[in-house]
Amino acid sequence: xxxxxxxxxxxxxxxxxxxxxxxxxxxxxxxxxxxxxxxxxxxxxxxxxxxxxxxxxxxxxxxxxxxxxxxxxxxxxxxxxxxxxxxxxxxxxxxxxxxxxxxxxxxxxxxxxxxxxxxxxxxxxxxxxxxxxxxxxxxxxxxxxxxxxxxxxxxxxxxxxxxxxxxxxxxxxxxxxxxxxxxxxxxxxxxxxxxxxxxxxxxxxxxxxxxxxxxxxxxxxxxxxxxxxxxxxxxxxxxxxxxxxxxxxxxxxxxxxxxxxxxxxxxxxxxxxxxxxxxxxxxxxxxxxxxxxxxxxxxxxxxxxxxxxxxxxxxxxxxxxxxxxxxxxxxxxxxxxxxxxxxxxxxx
Amino acid sequence: xxxxxxxxxxxxxxxxxxxxxxxxxxxxxxxxxxxxxxxxxxxxxxxxxxxxxxxxxxxxxxxxxxxxxxxxxxxxxxxxxxxxxxxxxxxxxxxxxxxxxxxxxxxxxxxxxxxxxxxxxxxxxxxxxxxxxxxxxxxxxxxxxxxxxxxxxxxxxxxxxxxxxxxxxxxxxxxxxxxxxxxxxxxxxxxxxxxxxxxxxxxxxxxxxxxxxxxxxxxxxxxxxxxxxxxxxxxxxxxxxxxxxxxxxxxxxxxxxxxxxxxxxxxxxxxxxxxxxxxxxxxxxxxxxxxxxxxxxxxxxxxxxxxxxxxxxxxxxxxxxxxxxxxxxxxxxxxxxxxxxxxxxxxxxxxxxxxxxxxxxxxxxxxxxxxxxxxxxxxxxxxxxxxxxxxxxxxxxxxxxxxxxxxxxxxxxxxxxxxxxxxxxxxxxxxxxxxxxxxxxxxxxxxxxxxxxxxxxxxxxxxxxxxxxxxxxxxxxxxxxxxxxxxxxxxxxxxxxxxxxx
Amino acid sequence: xxxxxxxxxxxxxxxxxxxxxxxxxxxxxxxxxxxxxxxxxxxxxxxxxxxxxxxxxxxxxxxxxxxxxxxxxxxxxxxxxxxxxxxxxxxxxxxxxxxxxxxxxxxxxxxxxxxxxxxxxxxxxxxxxxxxxxxxxxxxxxxxxxxxxxxxxxxxxxxxxxxxxxxxxxxxxxxxxxxxxxxxxxxxxxxxxxxxxxxxxxxxxxxxxxxxxxxxxxxxxxxxxxxxxxxxxxxxxxxxxxxxxxxxxxxxxxxxxxxxxxxxxxxxxxxxxxxxxxxxxxxxxxxxxxxxxxxx
Lengths: 348, 502, 296
Hints:
heterotrimer, A: mainly alpha, ABC transporter involved in vitamin B12 uptake, BtuC, 76% helix, C: mainly alpha, two-stranded antiparallel sheet, two-stranded antiparallel ribbon
């Protein structure tokens, strides 16, 4: 019963977003039907497309989770991008030099990548705790620092001299993660993290404190919650999730090395997914899959029609805006209608 | 008739019915009191008249003409202005800037400060309001800020001035001054609506009285000596009200809260917010803190709960020195009902259960190592909902759906069930209806009778006088007096609050 | 040495301009109590449409016209969501930043058929102003001369904004809205309208910052070329609590730092490190601000 409203809202909003996007497709002298057909064909149409969508979605699930948990706790961690990059870089570098059997090496690299992300977020947590610096700006600025630092490391000390763009050497072959029926194992790791985070948020007392802090920080403080530690913990956890996304992309992506631009837009995508999901964890999973579908379908769309793949970046932002707009607008609309009904009762 | 409001209905989205078919009228040059409990619809009715809120139904006539009052500007054009209970002033601006805001004297878009100041000064002199129009607004007292609000309306040439609970935060002496000003305004031809639930004041100043109850108009009566407070109270509440008094003196126990030489100096302004405060609360007594708002009560509470660290001094609870503790470490020793339930006492978007288990969640049986036991939480919340008669659909309903009184019950249920030896209550009955207020007062007496130490901060002097065994009076961060409400009377407390000798 | 310092200051003034312009825009929102973080996107959109208009119609004035229009459109979208539909301002801001990034990246590809950046000899840049009189003055001449006129516009705006904010009716009302919206509503002014104006001003100023970026600072458009400048301007606004003169000053400090990097590059410091300077500086400024609060 309580699910009907959010689901119908979501469907309405997405439909509206696709409608708005069709106008732009028409302006581009293409047929929206063809474009969306291609999106569907290459994003969901076959097992091959579908498994590719799942594979495209796993970093998004993790960065989305990262943003959702942070926002839900009232911690404005916008540093997913930087945390992701450090996770990826550390994993890529250690993957070249560390010699371990794959059963041990792969989990170790993934965890170390996650920890690097956590450490980078930990810097913001330290700033916040020690100097009361707002994490909103500090995580943002740390993104830029991470971008240039990792690029430096990939350009000078760990450069693969044979590569065309600045990148590290290929990681050892035993660290390549496998697929199960074409689906990256990393996808299942991401699913597991969704469950683990759900457990943390809804079953542990730290999770309770974090959620209460997100609702009302003063309430939590006065109620005796350990808000400083909770904030630090949330930053570390969400940093870990982003770092893990980066590491898994190295281990189970297509490149198996750190290259310039590997972070793509995963950080901001995560933020957008959290916004669309209204910070709900399972909603995050859903929207991550949805964005994964768009990104994966975009390749086919460019191939089949004259619309370039960059169009989905635009489509994505339209969807975010219409979704939040519809949600907010519908709430005031239904409130208004209920008030009308109540007045009807009174005056009749 | 100067103003007629006919058959007014108001529904706030989504489904709060605030007014049901209310009629109301004003005659030129009268002081018309509008009384009713909190939530009776007084403020809503007046907000409709002053254009802040649109009526859902009904019509308004001014001088016989039917009018649509869509905004305060339209209201002002019709000569109607309202001074809200929560004063709507910009603290950092000067007093005269607040007065002229919205219709500023200007030339080519440039604001003219001197001219504005001069105009406001003349206006204040004309109506006999004593106030420094060049003062920074936030440095003025509540009474002073209220005068600015009145000037704001006079500047807009209003004939009908609506004062919404103007005496709520004033001392008896300041209230007297306000009444004098009201009479002066009436003598100069202004019509005044005096919204209040203090019946003695209403009977003292008004020419006519309209009573509202639960959104309905009960009666409009002439204040000609044939009506008294008991009769009015019955009309307001709808039944004979039980008068508090469960006061029996009991021997007090050990000191539970001991505060020694507490001083707090503002880091930003260097002002002494608390200055050498000493106080003690024993087991089995209710200790009241009286004072005009903004004299250090807020800071005292913040220091007591651990939100702010004192500059110097010492706080002991149950013999333990807690001066350096934060809220988390103090909570095992004290319960706390904050003044602002929406921003401090509750997480409105969280469920009733989540609100009820706060603080309790730090200990077993709720806390089990890493986990929070959901089943224990649910049965605990269900139990409290039953014990404290919280009207709701169940523990998983969001707190924001509850009425103000029930929200406050959630806070009180949580804090009382902590069963701490010390409980601090900051304005616990503000904004509640009579029934909820009565309920809370009974709770406080019950706490005292079960040997708890109760510290009560309140702006409602009657409440303090009724409930407290001892009263400390605060002024400018000092404790200026310790009084026994059995011995002294309300006006004496008022003198101490203002700092004039009795 | 003097020549290097003059060169440095010249460059500092140049890189301070987009930050200052965007910050002036954000300042109006700040005072209207609107948490507007859309400067980044508005700047990016402005930069794109400046290049589009200028290239398409052969004059930089068209670029400016198009950029301002794009700023107004984004301000309209911001107002529609944040003011009319009452969507959270922060979320709206992020949505607009994403919209700008998505749309410019797509348009770059769809209109100019390039990925990454559009560079062309036929993009008319904003002409540089020379002051023959000052040019003769040894040091000052080198610092002040031959800047695109928007640099001087930015400096002038510091004074104009100061007057608008503290000396006009609009400024008084705006500051009142930010501090106590009920006070403004109680005298019948529309808060929504004041917020709308602040959003519009933000759109205009941020778009100007974009114009300067793509037609003045350099003459090209590249993907995501605002590169965090909008965020830095936001940090500045918060740090100086929206005071126009201080905004100008802080922007100059950032401009200086950005170019100190160029200087360091001469001493073989890798470019990745020098590029970090403005962001590290933002962190450092935040840090010293926090320290100041603590010790106060």
